[in-house]
Design goal:
353 residues, alpha+beta, Chorismate synthase, AroC fold, five-stranded antiparallel sheet
């Protein structure tokens, strides 16, 4: 199992072409009513959309084996499983000894001689399904505390959303297939994905996440800082290659007089800007927490690429078959939300609220 958290402990298990994927969520306080409808809503957002997502369609029905009798947490570990029903392993027979460029195949094949390459095995984005299920529980745990989490697609390929976005915008993105914040951007991003797919290629993009309701002082310092623990968790999501908070790398082109978020009194202490993304010294300054996550283009593409055959130790050419998302960002938005919720729920147990 692969684990996250110190207080609210999340354990992930399964493989893309195994019987199921699932998770165990420990130390959720008893007495919290969990809505199955809200879990399903989050799971549906992660599902691929026609034209811009993988043809692999799964029911993604979450089976709760323990920890929530009658929909109320009882304090014991919550175990959830999601069946893998739509499996086609034949597409991977020709590449069992030829690592796919951009995938974990090469280091995994060298490290584990019996590595199961089908669907990416334990490295597959299929394992993000139970992350989303657990994230929904974490969101419902945080909601009574006044903490809201929402994400949206900031860019896909060459299509960028250059507007300042709010929580309301991020929530609005749930109605669009690409998770863009407007119908116009949704159309442009859809075309960008489809054009790449028609060419046998793929595109990457950026997901932006917003967290409202964190009190001043929420978080930690040094290696327990809020941005540090968030970054570690977010980098665990498949295909993530970068993360930035607030102005991120652009802040290097500003002067201190421009980058500093100055304070004033407005029904309490407020910052006049949010260049730091709501975090200073590893803790919340009371402003919305804002960060962006960069996702690489899907490495599984039908265009021919160079590789090697590990059985002969000779050069090889590979064209990847199977069913893959030409862009992972639209589905990854809900995964970013879920991981963020798990981290915030875990940190909340430190007594910061």
């Amino acid at each position: 199992m692969y684990s996250l958290g110190n207080n609210i402990k999340f354990h992930l298990f399964g493989k893309s072409h195994g019987e199921h994927v699932g998770c165990i969520l420990e130390n959720v306080p008893p007495g919290i009513r969990i809505s199955a409808d809200l879990i399903k809503e989050e799971m549906d957002l992660r599902k691929p959309r026609d034209g811009i997502g993988t043809p692999r369609k799964e029911d993604d029905n979450v089976e709760i084996a323990s920890g929530m009798p009658d929909g109320i947490t009882d304090g014991s570990p919550i175990k959830m499983t999601i069946a893998n029903k739509n499996i086609k392993s034949s597409a991977y027979e020709d590449i069992s000894t030829v690592p796919r460029p951009g995938h974990a195949d090469l280091p995994a094949m060298i490290r584990w001689k019996d590595h199961d390459v089908r669907g990416g095995g334990q490295f597959s984005g299929r394992l993000t399904a139970p992350i989303v299920a657990a994230g929904s529980i974490a969101k419902q745990m945080l909601s009574p505390m006044g903490i809201k989490i929402a994400a949206f697609t900031r860019s896909v390929g060459r299509i960028d959303d250059d507007r300042i976005r709010t929580m309301d915008d991020a929530l609005l993105s749930r109605k669009y297939a690409t998770r863009a914040c407007s119908s116009e951007l949704d159309e442009m991003m859809t075309a960008e994905i489809i054009n790449a797919s028609k060419d046998g290629d793929s595109v990457g993009g950026i997901a932006e996440c917003i967290v409202n309701g964190l009190p001043i002082g929420f978080g930690g310092i040094w290696f327990e800082s809020l941005d540090a623990v968030l970054a570690k968790a977010v980098f665990g999501i498949p295909a993530v290659k970068g993360i930035e908070f607030g102005k991120g790398f652009d802040i290097t082109r500003m002067k201190g007089s421009e980058s500093n978020d100055q304070y004033h009194i407005d029904n309490g202490i407020k910052a006049m800007t949010n260049n730091m993304g709501g975090i200073v010294g590893g803790m919340s300054n009371g402003m919305p927490l804002v960060f962006r996550t960069a996702f690489k283009p899907t490495p599984s593409i039908s265009k021919e690429q160079r590789s090697v055959d590990l059985s002969t130790m000779k050069d090889a050419v590979i064209s990847i078959k199977g069913r893959h998302d030409p862009c992972v960002v639209p589905r990854a938005v809900s995964v970013v939300e879920a991981v963020t919720a798990l981290v915030i729920a875990d940190v909340s147990m430190n007594g910061a609220i």
